[in-house]
Amino acid sequence: MIKASIIGASGYTGIELIRLLLKHPDVEISSIISSSNRDIPIEKTNPQFKKILNLTFKEFDADLIKEADVVFCALPHGVSQEYVKLAYDLGKVVIDLSSDFRYKDLARYSKDYGEHKYTNLISESSYGLCEIYREEIKSSKIIGNPGCYPTSAILGLAPLLKKKLVQKDSIIIDSKSGVSGAGKKSDFAYSFCEVDENFKAYGVAKHRHTSEIEEKCSFLYGETLNISFTPHLLPVKRGILSTIYATLTKNLDKNDLIEIYKQFYKDEFFIRIYEDGLPELKYVTGTNFVDIGLEVDRKTNRVIVISCIDNLIKGAAGQAIQNMNIKFSLNEKTGLVMAGEYF
Amino acid sequence: MIKASIIGASGYTGIELIRLLLKHPDVEISSIISSSNRDIPIEKTNPQFKKILNLTFKEFDADLIKEADVVFCALPHGVSQEYVKLAYDLGKVVIDLSSDFRYKDLARYSKDYGEHKYTNLISESSYGLCEIYREEIKSSKIIGNPGCYPTSAILGLAPLLKKKLVQKDSIIIDSKSGVSGAGKKSDFAYSFCEVDENFKAYGVAKHRHTSEIEEKCSFLYGETLNISFTPHLLPVKRGILSTIYATLTKNLDKNDLIEIYKQFYKDEFFIRIYEDGLPELKYVTGTNFVDIGLEVDRKTNRVIVISCIDNLIKGAAGQAIQNMNIKFSLNEKTGLVMAGEYF
Amino acid sequence: MIKASIIGASGYTGIELIRLLLKHPDVEISSIISSSNRDIPIEKTNPQFKKILNLTFKEFDADLIKEADVVFCALPHGVSQEYVKLAYDLGKVVIDLSSDFRYKDLARYSKDYGEHKYTNLISESSYGLCEIYREEIKSSKIIGNPGCYPTSAILGLAPLLKKKLVQKDSIIIDSKSGVSGAGKKSDFAYSFCEVDENFKAYGVAKHRHTSEIEEKCSFLYGETLNISFTPHLLPVKRGILSTIYATLTKNLDKNDLIEIYKQFYKDEFFIRIYEDGLPELKYVTGTNFVDIGLEVDRKTNRVIVISCIDNLIKGAAGQAIQNMNIKFSLNEKTGLVMAGEYF
Amino acid sequence: MIKASIIGASGYTGIELIRLLLKHPDVEISSIISSSNRDIPIEKTNPQFKKILNLTFKEFDADLIKEADVVFCALPHGVSQEYVKLAYDLGKVVIDLSSDFRYKDLARYSKDYGEHKYTNLISESSYGLCEIYREEIKSSKIIGNPGCYPTSAILGLAPLLKKKLVQKDSIIIDSKSGVSGAGKKSDFAYSFCEVDENFKAYGVAKHRHTSEIEEKCSFLYGETLNISFTPHLLPVKRGILSTIYATLTKNLDKNDLIEIYKQFYKDEFFIRIYEDGLPELKYVTGTNFVDIGLEVDRKTNRVIVISCIDNLIKGAAGQAIQNMNIKFSLNEKTGLVMAGEYF
Question: In which pathway is this protein known to take part (chains A, B, C, D) (predicted)?
């Protein structure tokens, strides 16, 4: 059994990691670390775990890390790198769910997140977008788990980018996310009476996930790309749907592109390409799937890609486990095959 | 592997049965039967099953039943008994999710549901409320899976009734259910614009689940009970919370009653008693648990019990699987242990 | 024009008062007072008022009260009485939306809310439940605007109580409220991810509105009543639906009772009695109406009353304006006649 | 008093027209016509009108039109033109809420909606987008009330188009609408369990509102434009938020553009330009306002415009009344000034 320790275990991502790891046949959760909930049994703070998990939140202690094989850091950026460093120095596999190890270009990172203290660790890290970076992940000790918006956007665009089927500066990503993406907060902006029956854009032309998307898309395209990215807040708990626009460089129709996507992702279990119809948010919520559909607008020569994920699973905890599976040479699907509840 | 056939597989309960059976290590779904969707692959009607389940809905055919070990009937009452009879005659274990085999007193049944055509089968059937009727279930070939409201109400009341701790005619059950309880329908009353931001009572003083609740509660109490039951429609997809009022016959406080409940359900994995706090709907949605808490109102000498279930799981598909586990001598928890998504 | 000043104008009740007063033809809002938002134009904090209201929140200042004819206090209890006293001493009509002037029996008040500092003002005050206390309201300078739950409960019960048609200790009030009833808060318990798709009871057997309900119902009944009251939190923004149970003392059927209710409320514009069907939450949200329907359960001899209000309107701001209309001898309906948006 | 008759009065738009006209000081509703609800009092089908409106749905009869001054047609396209013709022939002002009189180019109309039977009436009609076509409206007897999506899109783009500040083929409109936009339907796709917690795009690259948007935007721009338009279904009852992307032709920053918008709409009461922040859906729901904000993305030289309306008010019934006000030389704001409920 792989022993897993979760640091920052009481946030939404931490709790989702726990819920998913409980279904994993090869993992034992060795410790759940949360200073704000230290010494409280998880069934008190999260009664959904009553009779399911008999663990108590612990204050951080290096000994808890020592006894683990894999460490998941579900902490805010900046804070996270301290614990990543520590776990790395103890020789552990570290999967970091913050933005601290997502970037190769630290100038991009610093602009959005401030100075990085452990720049020498960047070369030891890989970007944990499994379908694209599987080989790098296998050989890294630190995995920077991707952001939720970037996961939906990059995977939705990858076949087009890799084959340069779209014009360089034509990409627009209009994303809509459920509220859990904001994390566990008492913030008034996320109170029920504010969010219910509402909808809004936020961070327009300045959201920090833009640089992460641009770095990875540029890499796939082979040139530096500037991308417009607009996130919106949906009145739902979970899920991201990204509507992606790009101008085609060739005269391709829907069937051509579907074939290209199917070929590109032919070995990827977690990518589902829609030949007919388009994905909807609820088809993926509760799962690790990325559902992708598309249409071509002849008149404007644009492709419109719809890419859906569950922000807490493929966009966070599920992809983290997928990364762990890769790293520990398990079948990548282990513990992650499930149909969503839907209703 | 137990081979399972589901008749009426395309409704909400049928789909939930499929989703849950996919997690069951000892079951193989041998056929999914739905005349309205015949010959359509399930991934077309329900894309959440893409890459998860490669089955096609079939028209009913006795041969499909013959190759199964267990038959789940998820059909409307009246229609259901025809298929139950047929499967029974073929020697199969039949778990019927309609109301056709829930009653012992057919006068009660007929008053609410019309004439029963196979009255001789009643003696072959048991009421599938696992925690109360486990022994009868083991020795029956037909199991009448309980209604969703009755499951939440009876299990919430059982310890009080069995020990006659409440006055005979004092019981009031005020229940609130999510919309999936109404089944898969195009009915205008269940359209989004009608239900969203709304709340209403329905079937007041005449809902058909009243007679099912009364029959089973009377049996537990040892006298015929008249009970007030009021269902309400919540603007949520799933879950039932019942607020149950009864006047105590003895001077008991909260701790006394909690102790009695804990003792009564001490061997029941799926019953969770709250010593502190009270259950909320989201603690159980997505699970087979029944969460029960209570308070005593000294001033009025009433106990107020809060009982929560997921109407589609413990109130339908999950309990059906629990019944199958009992019937096939599996560990009762098999395939049914999971924490809810919560957010 | 009546000049109105609102103290505590930035909370949910304060904002709703402003929104409703803008529709009132005889009122001019002279000041909106909120220390936490002082000197901020309301269109900045609440953009829904852009181009509608050109006012700026002010810090409290007695001069603002002096220039007003009526003062609405939308402050927390305890704090509120200080401002009520001050406005009263300045000779103003004061409508207090806190619990500070709702009680006649200060022992009840103190038990739930702590000591009252201005006990001598109680005799100057009346309980602002317009349909029942209209005459007292006309002759008082301080009006204690009723709580939201009590408004729905007392008006739903009044005809039964006044005529002693129900057994003394048989009354149970099972109420369900939208989230705005909790007020404007950054409390985690009211965050979207907690409330959405959830439902729960709270304050069971100890909610403070119980004593307010009991005092007023006892007064109507002519004897001291003990009542069970259970509030629940609905995942909707606004509205209260109370399901009220009581055992009848006489053999009355639905039609008899409907007739009694219609007679009792025959001059009350804001009370709508349902002869057929039952009210639903959305029929009243956005309005000052109280919608009441009922059924009789022959078997148990109970009446089940459904009483619906908008917690922010008839349960707070609307009733406050209705009280103002009474006090200033305006037609009681002025500014308060509107159909709800419904969808 | 202007006498108004509403044909198709029982749909969502018809009901909203009734609700709004009740607030209009110069209008009396002379008849509400709905064959499916004929002879049923509106308070039976829509209890929110109890005590508010004492009218009964009527079967269509030309006499009902004769006694009206203005006729609102809230019928499906194709059917609507028959009644428009009839009312026009009777000399009435007709405001048609279908798509039948929105187009000048009947080739566009026919492609999306089929053949038009009264092509000679097109020249008698004007497009009822008040802020842009006020003069034409004044002199037309038939007003084609704009679609909901086109209203949000065209008004969001008009200043940019009129001044040719954006590149011809760069416009992308990503719109998100509440469910009431689909009309009153028993369609399974709009059932609560399908829509709740879900989100999806639909009609991608083929929605019929595209041609309406293109015709009007081309007119404003002075050249034929091809525009990408993607509608999405939000799990809310009402409101449309459009996120509009376009590439700037000049080096303009946010302040420049805000100034241009403010200038362009300086006399328009119902347009609210956001200098700081961006509009959210709830700021406009329940109102006739169009709230517009924008950001400029330097890196990509794109402007991102956020344009919000209430689809049933400014997107349908409210704009219809605004058109009536224009046509009858009333103050355009009459009956339409209100702040939204927000919570």
Answer: Amino-acid biosynthesis; L-arginine biosynthesis; N(2)-acetyl-L-ornithine from L-glutamate: step 3/4
